[in-house]
Design a protein that fits this description.
- This protein has about 110 residues and is an all-alpha fold.
- Helices cover about 85% and strands about 0% of the residues.
- The protein is built from 4 helices and no strands.
- Helix 1 packs across helix 4 and helix 2 runs antiparallel to helix 3.
- The longest helix has about 50 residues.
- The N and C termini lie far apart (about 45 Å).
């Protein structure tokens, strides 16, 4: 998502009409993709990231550096999150999975 936002902000700066179309489309996509869970406002950080990139446009030479920074930032965040939460997620996910399997068995037995 980060690279997509970086590419769209770069292209939106190049042309007024293209910028209007891209800005509307990108903000809709960010809101749609990130609002699968309505309890969490995940669309806010991505929307702000896109707005900040629009506010500070880069030229062609610095665009590659921006893309590399966006890729590195995403990989760093995911890696750090994995290292911190790797033990907690396994036990929680295993417990949830076992409960879901039991619920499915109960429901399937009721219908038969």
């Amino acid at each position: 998502m980060n690279v997509f936002l970086g590419l769209c902000s770069f292209l939106a700066y190049k042309s007024l009409i293209l910028g209007l179309i891209l800005n509307t489309t990108v903000m809709f996509i960010v809101a749609y993709v990130c609002s699968y869970n309505l309890n969490e406002g995940l669309y806010i950080p991505f929307g702000l990231q896109y707005m900040f990139m629009l506010n500070t446009p880069v030229d062609d030479k610095k665009f590659i550096i921006r893309l590399v920074a966006l890729i590195f930032g995403a990989l760093f965040s995911v890696t750090l999150q994995y290292i911190i939460n790797r033990k907690n997620d396994v036990s929680i996910n295993k417990f949830k999975l076992e409960n879901e399997v039991l619920n499915i068995r109960k429901i399937s037995q009721r219908k038969v």
